[in-house]
Design a protein that fits this description.
By secondary structure, the protein is of the alpha+beta class. It has three domains: 86 residues, Integrase, DNA-binding domain (Double Stranded RNA Binding Domain, 2-Layer Sandwich); 95 residues, Orthogonal Bundle (DNA polymerase, domain 1); 213 residues, hpI Integrase, Chain A, CATH 1.10.443.10. It contains 17 helices and seven strands. The strands form two sheets. Strands 1-2-3-4 form a four-stranded antiparallel β-sheet. Strands 5-6-7 form a three-stranded antiparallel β-sheet. Strand 3 and strand 4 form a beta hairpin. About 2% of the residues have low confidence.
């Protein structure tokens, strides 16, 4: 006989296996750790099995109740599978959770990229529909949703559990707005998901800038990779914004790089449609040093659409791992010391410490999301542009000064060399 503790402690193995309870009831454990109830029985000399659902959404006690109900049908000469089919056909398909969720997904497509829409639908099909997809949405209670989310959370994928909870809240809100249900049962799921501790991207303290610059200069690998590292330090963009850059985004005469909200997707390249993360055109003023680097890069990759094509083809961008791999080659631990994204932290620290520019101008150049919803609607891509042009040149000059040895940002900002 099974117990809850025995079920919870069951580990997933290389092959699926069964845990037997009694009277035909058993639990299967998949290679991914999914636990599902089945009842094996014989009717008219044919062996069959009936699925009861996933554990822990269907508890051990509930599974035994379902088994006992099925055995009563057998004793009455009724096949449990035929009875189940009759019950399912009685549920109006337009009232099932799957139907309502699919309607919500379709109505939201205009708000999402194709990749994001596919990601949400895949999540629902994998984690939600198997458990509650066929249920009448009006019969779904908070406890059903809590068990579903908790089962995902208990697998250790806390971020997935959090996203599923968000999807459930929005789907149920859609059902309320459509008049299918009167109350959103997903509102009371606080405490079900383990809070995810924010993982900050590692960045070097500014006093180690001279060391970083020397190590980048000494990189012995592909020239285009070294130039990508150096340009990334000057423009401090997000990884995808940099590596997916196209030459037609640049106007080197006026020293401006325009990162579009979205780029044309490339077959076989994951997330290749990504542009500026905030889904709004982002202007990057280019310092004299950045333009000089881009001229060197164009001499190498100018025949490609991409500023940084891959090592083996001009028709695809460089790998998403290239920058961090290069940092590891020159001696850094990208999990604890510095990663490509950490360049943003370093630049932001120096610009704030200098005291020369307003926080608004720095935040606009960092392309951080505006937290004030009303104000966000009026933020213009060229806001604080004059200050940002000066700021980006100051940062590149500051990098050059640190090649000779560390200078604190506030010291440089107050020196004659720091004035423009």
């Amino acid at each position: 006989m099974l117990t809850d503790s025995k079920i919870r402690s069951a580990k997933n193995l290389e092959k699926s296996y069964k845990l037997t309870d009694s009277l035909g009831l058993y639990l299967t454990i998949s290679t991914h750790g999914a636990k599902r109830w089945y009842f094996r029985y014989t009717f008219e000399r044919k062996e069959n099995r009936l699925a009861f659902g996933a554990y822990p959404l269907i508890s051990l006690a509930a599974a035994r109740e379902k088994r006992d109900a099925a055995r009563k049908l057998l004793a009455s000469g009724v096949c449990p599978s035929l009875s189940r089919k009759a019950e399912k056909s009685a549920v109006d398909e337009s009232r099932t959770f799957r139907y309502i969720a699919t309607g919500w997904h379709t109505s939201s497509l205009k708000l999402w990229s194709d990749a994001h829409a596919d990601k949400i639908l895949t999540c629902l099909r994998r984690y939600v529909f198997p458990a509650i997809g066929a249920m009448d949405i009006a019969q779904i209670e908070t406890r059903h949703l809590a068990q579903l989310v908790k089962a995902i959370n208990d697998k250790g994928v806390h971020d997935v559990a959090g996203r599923v909870r968000q999807h459930l809240t929005k789907i149920m809100r859609h059902a309320v707005q459509q008049g299918v249900i009167k109350y959103n049962p997903a509102y009371d799921l606080d405490g079900v998901v383990t809070p995810v501790v924010a993982q900050h991207h590692p960045a070097l303290p500014l006093k180690r800038l001279p060391e970083l610059l020397v190590k980048i200069d000494s990189y012995q690998g592909r020239m285009l990779t070294r130039l990508a590292l150096e340009l990334n330090l000057h423009v401090f963009l997000r990884a995808s914004e940099l590596r997916l850059a196209r030459w037609d985004e640049f106007n080197l005469k006026v020293h401006i790089w325009t990162v579009p909200p979205q780029r044309e997707a490339v077959n076989g390249v994951r997330f290749s449609e990504r542009g500026a993360k905030m889904r709004d055109e982002h202007l990057v003023p280019l310092s004299q040093q950045a333009v000089a680097l881009l001229e060197q890069i164009r001499a190498i990759s100018g025949e490609s659409v991409f500023v940084f094509p891959g090592a083996h083809t001009l028709n695809k961008p460089m790998s998403e791992n290239t920058i961090n791999k290069a940092l590891r080659v020159i001696g850094y631990d990208t999990k604890t010391e510095v990663c490509g994204h950490g360049f943003r932290t370093m630049a932001c620290s120096a610009l704030n410490e200098s005291g020369r520019w307003s926080k608004d101008a720095i935040e606009r150049q960092m392309s951080h999301k505006e937290r004030n919803g009303v104000r966000a609607a009026y933020v213009h891509k060229a806001e604080h542009l004059e200050a940002r042009i000066e700021m980006m040149q100051w940062w590149s000059d500051y990098l050059d000064v640190n090649r000779e040895g560390y200078v604190a940002p506030y010291v440089y900002a107050r020196s004659n060399a720091g004035k423009h």
